[in-house]
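hi! just following up on the protien thing from before. the input was this:
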Amino acid sequence: RVLDQMLTDKKNKHQHIVPLPETSSIPDRATLVVARYNEDIEWLCEIDDSIEIVLYNKGKRDFSKKVSARVNHMMKLPNRGRESDTYLYHLQNYHHKAKNEWTIFCQGDPFPHNPDFLKFLNHRQHWSDIQPMTCGYIDEWQIPPEVIRTLDDHDWMGEFRVRTDFFSTSNHEVLGWIDHGGRQLMNDFVAYHRLPSGWSIYGYFLEQCGLMELAKEAWTSPIGQFGFAAMFAVRNHLLDQIPADCIPRMRRLAAEHNSHGYIFERLWLHLFGLPFIKFERPRFIK
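and the predicted 3d structure came back as:
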């Protein structure tokens, strides 16, 4: 079969990946924003001192003294709004440092979404200004399906399995495979907001956030791009892409309905400046 040969070719290619080159330059400093519930966070002790750790804890304080000593800033938050509220709280309240430094956003347990997360942190000199940091959601759940993860290595960085997915801005559907969970969330969102048929989910939601120009872009651009699990990094000079006066409204939305956290998950890269995708359609006219 054609697919079997394609999979074999990709697997052979992946066995001969050239690692990212080591450089003598010191990576720009970074702030790691960790949205934790009750995950084991002992891994934070392995992070280099060039990264400042800001821990937002929505669960028990059951981690070791060693973790407490390594964390630079710690804040207890109520358990609402998933990681979306945590990230927005950080943007609203934290004083960000040099514009050329990084802010990295991640879950309390990043490894189901990127097994090489710790190593990847040390290759910041190879990152783009808006950098996805996951290769999928959870492998065991086949999200994305294994065949997709094998064939699609477009976003890989050397040996690091980074990948993004495309989605429809009108109906939330992932492009290229069937995301049953995402489809149910779309139905929940549409029912909750009573959206008429034909309305853009993302155009509507961005307008509710107060982001009118981005809402127009979502209405007129059919495709968005995201990384599962809302783990990514951005240069600090991009953090103010989200207007400060919109953040309170966005935080209320994050806590309002279960589907909203998943809408934010697919929006983060665009909120910090990644354009939605337009394409030219053929015109059937002489």
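The two ends are 40 Å apart (CA to CA).
Residues 29-271 form one domain.
cheers
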